Give the backbone structure.
Amino acid sequence: MPENDPRVFFAAERTLLAWIRTGLGLVAMGFVVAKFGLFFRILHPESPHTDHSWAGPIGIALAIMGALASASATWQHRRFCQTLTINDLPRQYLLQPGLLLGFGVAVAGLVLAMVLVV
């Protein structure tokens, strides 16, 4: 192995970004599911079966799951990067943007879940 091999770090970063995409997808799906009842009422106002009381709680749960997935993956990535030696990290590479993105998606998911509750 070369003395400076950042492949380990880049593999961890790809994993982090995959988890952030998963969290973002769950948050977005939560929003879509939570608003499904309203969308269905707009499309079919004459339909007698407009009660979709399940949509709100399931959508909120999906948004919270997405936020938790993003937050836990970001926390785990941060912990893993602290175990790497200086030779495993790319020179002059900032760790903070990935962490900010992960925690930002988590905060946005929680804010969206709160908005859906209200």
User: Anything to note?
Assistant: The mean pLDDT is 88. The CA atoms of residues 67 and 109 lie 5 Å apart. Residues 24-117 form one domain. The chain has four helices and no strands.
